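Data deposition worksheet. Section B asks for the primary sequence of the deposited chain exactly as it was used as input, without tags or linkers unless they were present during the calculation. Section C holds the resulting structure in token form. Section D is free text for depositor observations; keep each observation to a single sentence. Incomplete worksheets are returned to the depositor.
Section A, Depositor: J.P.
Section B:
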Amino acid sequence: MIQRSIPITFQHRVAFTHGAFDTKNHTLRDLVADACDLGGQSKVLVLLDSGVAESNPKLAEQISQYFAVHSDTLNLVTAPMIVTGGEPSKNQWSLVEKIWQAIEYHKVCRHSYIVAIGGGAFLDLAGFGAATAHRGIRLIRMPTTTLSQGDGGVGVKNGVNYFGKKNWVGTFSVPFAIVNDLDFITSLPERACRDGIIEAIKVSLIRDRDFYRYLHSNGEALGRLEKHPLETTIRRSAENHVDHIASSGDPFEYGSARPLDFGHWAAHKLEQISDFSVSHGEAVAIGMALDLLYSVEIDLLDRTVADETLELITTVGFDLWSDFLDAEESGHHVVLAGLEEFREHLGGELTITLIRNIGDKLEVHEMDEDAILRALDELRRRYAPSSSPAQIN
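Section C:
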């Protein structure tokens, strides 16, 4: 047997700015110029989320103008290519092929760049297209939602849904850079703007007690979506997520532990059950609430800590119940199937992250179904406006 170590170092760049496509803003231009050893132009294909294009009708023109002004460095191979965004886009394999076709037609190579501008689901789709064409084209992500700027958009995962399962097809691929333009937040609907706050609460619970205290102190302001605390929350959430990826020793998740997915085993299943009418942030809020109450049930977490956290989640604007949680199939709660799907997705033993205290996480490898159901009952009693179990035929 021949065995050698292959040392590989990745640079994980995250830039924050306002007005990224103001021609006087050199953030994007300089990222590309600094990586070009020989100088000259680099080909760039811009992929634009259709929802973002609709909310920002002048954006495509601004992008074209920006590239025209900086044509010494940036060669925009075609006008920004508008591609369907949102979670349903990840169910359309034809959109991956559409991205591949554009890459081939414009002869975009491994030394070229794809700039993907959109929400988290769109970045998953575009990132998968970029990572699989020519075995990987340099990707610059420009997340446009609070959820993607503070969490998914600064990560190293991408993928699309398959077999009715979220992110079943995908790759791990460190993007060339992430550019978080905080101006995009101003055009978000309130519901989408709120979603990123829950992932900030999540990451504070598993690794940053000081950040949690900041969120708790600013809960009411965050509930009102005030600009300064919201931007601070996004920045600190992104920093925590990137620090975890860079320092965990397992950035590509070869092991079974995924602490950044605290609350997600139920959340992912809830999204599926609801046909994604429950947003990712809303589902994570409920999934976290369920795991917090479960932790109280098994005497892992003090009830006062759980209650304080549940109050924070509701203060920033999340409901903690969905009638889809009561969906049953053959007499069993469908949401419980999320545990096995989570284990299968990890590819190993079941590993669920819980917390013992703020900033103190614990991985467990089994879950007590009776305790989950008791936690679900408590969640229903405390937060359900009415009980109307959903049925799945």
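Section D:
The first helix runs from residue 27 to 35.
Residues 388-393 have pLDDT under 50 and may be disordered.
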